[in-house]
Amino acid sequence: MPTERPSFGDRRSRAAAKLREHDLAALLLTPGADLRYLSGYQIFASERLTCLVIDREGTATLVCPEFEAPRASAAAPDLSRATWSETEDPYARVASLIRGAGGLAVADQMWAAFMLRLEGALPERTFRLASEVTRELRMRKDAGERDALRRASESADRAYARILERPFAGRTEREIGADLANLLRDEGHDEVDFTIVASGPNGASPHHETGERRIADGDTVVLDFGGGLGGYRSDITRTVHVGRAIDPEERRVHDIVRRAQEAGYDSARAGAPAEAVDAASRAVIDEAGYGAFFIHRTGHGIGLDGHEHPYLVRGNREPLEPGMAFSIEPGIYLAGRFGVRIEDIAIIDDDGAVLPLNRADHAFATVG
Fold first, then answer.
1. CA dihedral sign, ordered 183, 189, 190, 191
2. Could you report the per-residue pLDDT of 100-112, keeping only the tens digit for each?
3. Which tens digit of pLDDT belongs to each residue from 180-238?
4. Do residues 325 and 346 lie in contact, with contact meaning Cβ atoms separated by under 8 Å?
5. How big is the chain by its Cα radius of gyration, in Å?
6. Which domains are delineated in the chain?
7. In contact, 36 and 231? CB cutoff 8 Å
């Protein structure tokens, strides 16, 4: 069942309130998750400027190329539009929509080519990151967003269960990655963002680029994959073993990582600082003597972007709140040998408890 269409007007009103709170004149958003969150409009970035302008009173105007106006109108019928032709200056069009005093918040990933021209069109303005306005809005997922994340995670769970039925030994990482991509689509995903298949020593590289290594009997294989379903992202990691004979240290490391993730879950609750989840998972791995081999943060937020706030990392004392969704993904990486990571998406529920969205088996599964 599709989720109910959100009230983009309400979201823009809350964004305008944040602009006033930060004494900013307007929010300028080029294609990306912030634009989609506040308008429902999704379009690829190109050299032609598309920019949503929201002023501090909540007036919203989409500046877009004239030939894309029909598409924009269909996706965001409640937005005013200011179109520009191929021979007009879109930056002057944006500048004309900004009348109040104050600085401007611009999309965090705005292209430099756009940013520099906007600075030229608005020479008296100061510029700040849009995330100062949008991060608090997007971190707290509403009911529709939570349902979308749940459906994406359940789809990824089903894809994982099905990949365990496929042969691994003798096939390349790339072939297994292609299988995973197809299974994600079969299980409902609209988009596949990544399929990391890291076998044997490649598993010691957390963001290994899936390649042509042929998987052998006895390999430990890290499977990290995800994509989009209705715009919201999935992200799951499981570590499997090829063949029945598992090296004792590989089994021990997998058990340590599993217990580290459980400790992270136990510490994740409303009011707890984000860094507490990282500390709890890290303590288990440190105590087991593998602390030097846990080389990344324990988690990242997730929503319309695969990585967004909050980040579960030492130094982030921001308290967790209901509606925040994030990964919990400790790992151990032994260079030249193997790696183990287990990752789920979880969300802080309205009662303040952590709710796992991924429920795929955490066991050290064996595959053929």
1. negative
2. 899 999 999 999 9
3. 999 999 999 999 999 999 999 999 999 999 999 999 999 999 999 999 999 999 999 99
4. yes
5. 23
6. 8-138 (3.40.350.10), 140-367 (3.90.230.10)
7. yes
